[in-house]
Amino acid sequence: MYGTLEGADGYHAARGNTAWGEGSNEARTAALVRATDYIDGRYRYLLPSGRWASMFPGVRTEGRGQPNEWPRTGAVDYDGNELPIDLVPDEVERATYEAAVRELTEPGSLSPDFVASAQVTREKVGPIDVTYAAAEGEGTATPNRPVVPVIDEILAPLLLTRLTSPAVLVV
User: Where does the chain show beta strands of DSSP type E?
Assistant: First the structure.
């Protein structure tokens, strides 16, 4: 789990997030665990090769034996500053606290299940008939994972985008 209950309490108290203080210790701890899972999963992407890659720099310090993405070896921030191999960066903890308050108030909201066949594409209520945009391509569906800009912005100094196709560097 990224961060601590005490760290999350201080973070939310400083921001006036009263919903955080209303949860029991057990509920807040569970929200931190789910938020950690969200941070680890949300910041991965599928390469054209079919392999998943982390958007965080470096590699997990303990390799596959490490359950979470952090701490990492060989990680640098966007200014080129090396990050300690034995610590979780402050940005990751703060992003986890932001995700945790959302998970506390609505468990599962950051990574909801999605059933494509249940997606409404046309709806009629009385005289009003609305058709919604359908996903393009066979086997695709409109994503239902929320976009949380504050979390993306907190993590921005740590994120990288890997090249997914051949490129030529001209000097």
Answer: 44-46, 52-54, 59-60, 72-73, 122-125, 128-131
